[in-house]
Amino acid sequence: MLRSLTLALASLALVAQAPAPKAEPAAKPAPKAEPAAKPAPKEDKVLATIGGTPVKESDFELFLNLSVPEQQRAQVMMMPGARENYQKRFLEFKVLAVKGEKEGLAKTQDFARKLDLMRMQVLIQALFDRDGGKLRDDAKVSDEEVKAYFEKHPDKFRSPETFSARHILVSTRANGTDKPRTEEEAQARIKEAQAALKAGKPFDEVAKTFSDDPGSKDKGGLYEDIAFGRFVPEFEKAVRDQKPGVVGEPVKTMHGYHLIQVEKVNPSVPQTFEAAKETARQQAAAEKNETIMNAYMEAARKEVGYHEGAVPAARPAKVAPKARKASK
């Protein structure tokens, strides 16, 4: 719409700057056009009368707007029979609501409390329908604010510390059978794998023969560029403690026994602003949004009068004792 208005204004400007055409002989004035009649207001059709009260199409439209999210409404309404099904359901809801009213269910304390909660939701929605636009505008972040956030929080914008390592897992869990290995069986098998490595067999061949880890055994036990924090603590501690290229002693974890050979550990390094710009924008926007909402809520608390817990009852003022009359 804005683009079409701009084009229309531009064309008007061009017409204003164009040279005036030569005057033609004056023509007889055209008769004045009759004013166009205003379109008749759309009829608010009565869909049904329930309990003596008419239920109108505008009531159903409101129900539809509240029931179907705006971004899905057009797509849902294109489905054959969708509108009719929603209308049928709406009228059924109205029938059930009137039935509950007639049976006195609206007079209970439980109903009143639930109704108060629903009223609260509608009021909040109305409040943010009014104030939400300004709050969103206030929470927008400029490029300068994004850069300032990036520079203020350097620790948030670093590449993760990663490692690459090979391992052989001898599981103490069920390994393709209903019966898990005993501790003794697992220890004996990991020693077999250890002996094969000490005898000079390549790590990848031993992994393919002995490892129970389906995620790495066919790759010679290799896991590449894994961020610390993804594996169990005992495994990662061994990765940090062991020298690269040296197979360590068996490591016990919840999964079983591991032989680990560290290939490399990549330290965490700072990201450039360009690499982290979008992440910084999201985080800066989230922080500013929280600040805006906290200020909005604090102002609301002051406006309505908010007190944590019950308000202490005011103590009655002490009345001064009457002075005694002096004895004669």
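^ that was protein a. below is b, sequence first then the tokens
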Amino acid sequence: MLVERFKYTIWAADMTRAMKFYTEVFGAKVIKQNAHIIEMEICNGILSIHGGGEGAKTWTGLTFQVPDVIAGAAEIVAAGGQLTREPQPEDDEPPHLAMCVDPEGNEIMLTRKR
């Protein structure tokens, strides 16, 4: 099979709010936008936001590796997101994981390289 493109799509009740969150927190660059969908590039990957979401909490499987999970979690909260699992030290190492929710209810994960 010839794959021409790969992207991951999440749902949003408010696409503009979702776009603002991902551009501010993760430095996403909008590459396509219309009334139904916004596509953004993040670290060479494509995240697509589709309108029509209900705002209910939904596990996405999206994981963002960042150098500092504590600082990243603080940025998510400052941008209107939430934490469902605060960063916790493990085995005398700095935290490597934070479970988060974007303003649209999409659950995402922050990790640190180990």
